[in-house]
């Protein structure tokens, strides 16, 4: 009962309220200056569905359970191979087998981690002032009082007309080849697909690591499969087939895992080799964006018309810096004290850029402003 009574006292009145049985109120405590608020980094208010680690240095999609499964399968299969097959093969065949396997293993793991924990090429959402500015420009272009259901803009790329769609979540026209990932809730440049196996989107900034990952993983899986078959064959010649299976349950497990995974990994590697050679993304291929069925005018405008040049452009192009500046500090907002939501323009409403948008110009290059954390 006492607890209930205490809970009903508002926190501000707790110090001033006289205690039960006391005749006079105690002297007020000395005024404590408010503690300065800890400066927050931009990743702490990131509006997409991502998780951040190591102070924002690493990022992953929020639902990343399948990524743990991928990592576990690779670690378990390779660990069993190094522990139970490599000693026999190194002794009876050559020391090159564990060395090649180790090199492949470390390459696979490093490519997987680079794919999973990198920013895939996320575009920062428009700030309220940028969104309001764009809204005003769209409004001024419209001739009808009714807003069209889909907003599009046309640009010419390599003499081909490409339609840009408006993203209602990020409040901007998506640049060419950009798509909004429904899992991560971000617009990603050169969006390929969202891969639950690596726990991240695959886009402009991590595609080459993803391609190197699946290619090297297919080599590693095929190599382990071939080595385990060799190991079991050599042993069964000496001890008999059934006795070998009983003696080496770990090798049998590796064989089963490799057998069931190698086909899909090889198929995926082949498919992405075709995409790289054509300078296509999975998204474009599935949607048939540049399909030739409607004539040559719909050919891929990004293709360099040469397999070698396409491969170089996709895999050896320059590294692009991350645009979301997730380790940057959020600057204090010195603008109007009005509610942030009141500054967010709504579709259909006339926007007023004479509102405090001007002081937000500093957010244009950075991301996100505090208001951007509001789900809109
Ligand atoms: Zn978007
Ligand atoms: Zn995604």
UniProtKB/TrEMBL annotation:
<dbReference type="InterPro" id="IPR039859">
    <property type="entry name" value="PFA4/ZDH16/20/ERF2-like"/>
</dbReference>
<dbReference type="GO" id="GO:0019706">
    <property type="term" value="F:protein-cysteine S-palmitoyltransferase activity"/>
</dbReference>
<dbReference type="GO" id="GO:0005794">
    <property type="term" value="C:Golgi apparatus"/>
</dbReference>
<dbReference type="GO" id="GO:0005783">
    <property type="term" value="C:endoplasmic reticulum"/>
</dbReference>
<keyword id="KW-0808">Transferase</keyword>
<feature type="region of interest" description="Disordered">
    <location>
        <begin position="1"/>
        <end position="40"/>
    </location>
</feature>
<feature type="compositionally biased region" description="Low complexity">
    <location>
        <begin position="10"/>
        <end position="24"/>
    </location>
</feature>
<feature type="transmembrane region" description="Helical">
    <location>
        <begin position="66"/>
        <end position="84"/>
    </location>
</feature>
<feature type="region of interest" description="Disordered">
    <location>
        <begin position="330"/>
        <end position="376"/>
    </location>
</feature>
<keyword id="KW-0472">Membrane</keyword>
<keyword id="KW-0812">Transmembrane</keyword>
<feature type="transmembrane region" description="Helical">
    <location>
        <begin position="252"/>
        <end position="277"/>
    </location>
</feature>
<keyword id="KW-1133">Transmembrane helix</keyword>
<keyword id="KW-0012">Acyltransferase</keyword>
<dbReference type="InterPro" id="IPR001594">
    <property type="entry name" value="Palmitoyltrfase_DHHC"/>
</dbReference>
<feature type="compositionally biased region" description="Pro residues">
    <location>
        <begin position="25"/>
        <end position="34"/>
    </location>
</feature>
<protein>
    <recommendedName>
        <fullName>Palmitoyltransferase</fullName>
        <ecNumber>2.3.1.225</ecNumber>
    </recommendedName>
</protein>
<dbReference type="GO" id="GO:0016020">
    <property type="term" value="C:membrane"/>
</dbReference>
<feature type="domain" description="Palmitoyltransferase DHHC">
    <location>
        <begin position="164"/>
        <end position="287"/>
    </location>
</feature>
<feature type="transmembrane region" description="Helical">
    <location>
        <begin position="209"/>
        <end position="232"/>
    </location>
</feature>
<dbReference type="GO" id="GO:0006612">
    <property type="term" value="P:protein targeting to membrane"/>
</dbReference>
<dbReference type="Pfam" id="PF01529">
    <property type="entry name" value="DHHC"/>
</dbReference>
<comment type="similarity">
    <text>Belongs to the DHHC palmitoyltransferase family.</text>
</comment>
<feature type="transmembrane region" description="Helical">
    <location>
        <begin position="90"/>
        <end position="113"/>
    </location>
</feature>
């Amino acid at each position: 009962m006492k607890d209930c009574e205490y809970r009903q006292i508002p926190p501000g009145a707790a110090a001033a309220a006289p205690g039960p049985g006391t005749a006079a109120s105690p002297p007020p405590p000395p005024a404590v200056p408010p503690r300065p608020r800890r400066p927050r980094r931009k990743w702490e208010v990131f509006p997409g569905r991502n998780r951040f680690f190591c102070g924002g240095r690493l990022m992953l999609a929020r639902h990343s359970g399948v990524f743990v499964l991928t990592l576990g399968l690779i670690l378990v299969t390779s660990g069993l191979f190094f522990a139970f097959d490599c000693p026999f093969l190194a002794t009876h065949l050559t020391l090159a087998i564990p060395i090649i396997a180790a090199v492949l293993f470390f390459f696979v793991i490093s490519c997987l981690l680079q794919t999973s924990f990198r920013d895939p090429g996320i575009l920062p959402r428009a700030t309220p002032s940028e969104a309001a500015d764009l809204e005003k420009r769209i409004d001024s272009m419209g001739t009808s009082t009714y807003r069209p259901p889909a907003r599009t803009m046309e640009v010419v790329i390599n003499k081909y007309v490409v339609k840009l769609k408006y993203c209602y979540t990020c409040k901007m026209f998506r640049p060419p080849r950009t798509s909004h990932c429904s899992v991560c809730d971000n617009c990603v440049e050169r969006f390929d697909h969202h891969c639950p196996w690596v726990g991240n989107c695959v886009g402009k900034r991590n595609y080459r690591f993803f391609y190197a990952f699946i290619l090297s993983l297919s080599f590693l899986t095929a190599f382990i499969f071939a080595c385990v078959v060799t190991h079991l064959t050599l042993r069964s010649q000496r001890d008999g087939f059934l006795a070998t299976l009983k003696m080496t349950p770990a090798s049998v497990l590796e064989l089963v895992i490799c057998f069931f995974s190698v086909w899909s990994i090889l198929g995926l590697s082949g498919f992405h080799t075709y995409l790289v050679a054509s300078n296509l993304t999975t998204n474009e291929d599935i949607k048939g964006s540049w399909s030739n069925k409607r004539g040559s005018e719909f050919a891929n405008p990004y293709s360099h018309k040469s397999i070698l040049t396409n491969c170089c452009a996709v895999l050896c192009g320059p590294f692009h810096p991350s645009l979301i500046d997730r380790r940057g500090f959020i600057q204090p907002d010195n603008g109007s004290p009005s509610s942030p939501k009141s500054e967010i323009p709504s579709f259909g409403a006339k926007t007023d850029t004479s509102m405090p948008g001007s002081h937000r110009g500093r957010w244009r290059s950075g991301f996100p402003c505090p208001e951007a954390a509001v789900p809109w």
